[in-house]
Write a structure and sequence with these properties.
The complex is a heterodimer of chains A (334) and B (257). Chain A is mostly helical. Chain A has helices spanning 9-22, 60-83, 87-110, 130-156, 162-191, 196-199, 205-223, 229-252, 258-261, 263-287, 291-320, 323-330. Chain B is built from 7 helices and 10 strands. In chain B, the strands form 4 sheets. A 4-stranded mixed sheet of chain B has the order 8-1-10-9. Chain B is globular and about 80 Å long. Classes of the chains: A mainly alpha (334), B alpha+beta (257).
């Protein structure tokens, strides 16, 4: 019979019970970092680990979402200004759209690491890939708005003829249509993914991104000096929509929306919504006659919309880490 | 052309990780950082850019079929080697804007690394969280289904290295039948929670890597009803179209009023 004077059968029983109860043993020796382990896997998910991968996008991408929205809607404002004979807003809108296009491409390309890789986007066109649609849209928009600016400036400089005028109109219409896609495809890009908080808000994100683009385009034009009724009306509508969206997210109280209400991403979402929504809206409604208040409202909206883009990407990152967000959608009864 | 497939059987996996090692060695994949996770013997966490086979270790407080654990509480220690599912309708392939991700003649899903530009859209489009962007290289990586080996008539490295035939390689329909036989056999022997994981009923349309598991898919971090994200294209673009029309209306009104 095996005997060991230092350890009794009782001691072995004690050790087993303590290990079963607490998952660890208090005693001599090294307690490893990360202990006690092994930890049991919970039945609800594999060790609570993420099922999905977080987005890999760098800081340039949310900024591109914002700039693309401003540029796209500016081109639309320019076209409508042209239709109504508002020469000032036409020229400013075109230049703002052109400037946005110039900034957008480098931002998008920077995210890829190696600039030449962007060209691979243009080797195929896939209607089913929002990323492919977006890359082509940006290329098309940049060309159209660039052409519109050139034609417009030539016409202004006195080199105008019928051909240039028709070309300018065509370029402006193309820039407006592609601009609307540029400002909205980024929301489809998020909605058509496996990330729960994006996918489940696929009908809301287009509203957020387009309202943000509209309001920001109007706000930037205001900051350029266009304190006119047009930009005030656009600002009021955009801020009202931002406010309604924020209320919707808060009141709906869905589990999948938790990253939009809790933690850093949640507070970022709220901060963005407050600046672009109520703050901007109240400034416009109550102090709309004051130039200072208009400028302030414009700055608040731009800051809010910019924060909101980062918040949506951040919320996606948080959502991707929560296996329960995914499982609850796929097994609603459980 | 027959459809290449994996059948990975949790009930006979012994957690040796020969598949992980074989995959790394054959495909020259870098290490994952040699860090203790504290999650049983699993220190590679999940599938990713540098982990194309991943052995899960599940310690569960329930009996393993009719087996007696030998301690008061019921207990079972399960293992399963996870891998890219090579979906019938693949989210990554649909999302890829460069055409880098293709369907091969073996019906597997393959990333062409010289075409991939690292946009990262496949990463958020995979309903299983398989493909990831390598931070060293800057492009997307995942299981190649050992395309190079299959072209030469060899089975994938992981299946070749598996000592218990937990990883079986063969033709999809044959393996599906084999899986059914295996599940019935397990259930007859008292493993009542044995089931096949092969989401044929969802928009993914079934996978080319199917699994025999004990318990619910969630315990293995398998989505119970995975969907290919592109089924939402219509509703998302529809919402974008309606919103865009509203924007046009608002801008026009702004000039009228």
């Amino acid at each position: 019979m095996a005997t060991n004077p230092k350890i009794t059968e009782d001691r072995l029983d004690t050790l087993r019970e303590e290990a079963a109860r607490t998952g660890t043993i208090q005693g001599h020796g090294i307690v490893p970092v990360g202990g006690p382990f092994p930890r049991p896997a919970s039945a609800a998910s594999y060790h609570g680990n993420p099922v999905l991968k977080p987005p890999t996008w760098t800081w340039q991408v949310p900024l591109y979402f914002f700039v693309g929205g401003v540029a796209g809607i500016s081109a639309l404002i320019a076209l409508v200004a042209h239709l109504f004979g508002n020469v000032g807003l036409l020229r400013a809108g075109l230049w703002l759209g052109f400037a946005g296009a110039l900034v957008s491409a480098p931002l998008l390309i920077a995210d890829l690491g190696r600039p030449a890789r962007f060209l691979n986007m243009l080797r195929v066109f896939k209607l089913r890939s929002a990323m492919s649609v977006g890359a082509w849209t940006l290329a098309g928009f940049s060309s159209a708005v660039g052409l519109a600016v050139v034609c417009h400036e030539l016409n202004l400089a006195g080199y105008g003829n019928d051909f240039l005028l028709v070309l300018e109109w065509l370029a402006e219409i193309s820039a407006s249509l592609s601009g609307l896609i540029l400002a909205s495809y980024t929301s489809v890009l998020l909605g058509v993914t496996a990330i729960p908080v994006w996918s489940e808000n696929r009908k809301l994100v287009p509203v957020v991104f387009l309202a943000g683009g509209l309001g920001s385009a109007g706000a930037v034009l205001e900051l350029l000096g266009f304190l006119v009724p047009v930009t005030q009306f656009i600002g009021i509508v955009a801020s009202a929509v931002e406010t309604l969206v924020a209320i919707t997210i808060e009141l709906r109280g869905r589990y999948v929306d938790r990253p939009l209400r809790e933690g850093a991403a949640g507070w970022l979402t709220r901060a963005g919504a407050v600046f672009a929504g109520p703050v901007s809206l109240l400034l416009r409604i109550f102090w709309g006659h004051s130039a200072v208040a208009r400028y302030l409202a414009a700055v608040c909206f731009v800051i809010g919309a910019l924060i909101s883009r980062y918040a949506w990407i951040g919320a996606g990152r948080v959502s991707s880490r929560d296996p329960q967000a995914l499982f609850r959608i796929q097994r609603p009864a459980a | 052309m027959p459809i290449s497939a994996f059948l990975t059987d949790a009930s006979v996996c012994i957690g040796c990780k020969a598949c992980e090692v074989a995959c790394k060695e054959w495909n020259h994949i870098p290490d994952d950082g040699f860090e203790w996770s504290g999650q049983s013997y699993d220190n590679t966490h999940a599938l990713g850019a540098s982990t194309w086979r991943h052995v899960l270790f599940l310690e569960e407080k329930q009996p393993m079929g009719p087996q007696v654990a030998g301690i008061e509480e019921p207990f079972r220690w399960q293992f399963l080697s996870d891998v890219c599912k090579h979906c019938e309708n693949a989210g990554c392939l649909e999302a890829c804007p460069t055409g880098a991700i293709i369907r091969t003649e073996l019906e597997s899903v393959f990333v062409q690394h010289d075409v991939c530009n690292g946009c990262g859209y496949c990463v958020v489009s995979c309903p299983f969280g398989v493909v990831d962007k390598s931070h060293e290289v800057g492009t997307a990586f995942k299981c190649t289904f050992c395309y190079d080996r299959q072209r030469d008539g060899l089975m994938p490295a992981c299946a070749k290295a598996c000592p218990t035939r937990s990883i079986q390689f063969g033709e999809l329909e044959e393996l599906r039948q084999e899986a059914q036989v295996r599940v019935k056999e397990l259930q007859d022997r008292g493993y009542n929670d044995a089931q096949i994981y092969d989401p044929t009923g969802s928009s993914v349309g079934g996978t080319h890597a199917i699994f025999v598991i004990l318990g619910q898919p969630e315990a293995y971090n398998f989505p119970p009803a995975p969907e290919v994200p592109t089924i939402h294209l219509k509703s998302a673009w529809g919402a974008a179209l309606v919103s865009a029309l509203m924007v046009v209306l608002v801008v026009c009104l702004a000039f009228v009023l």
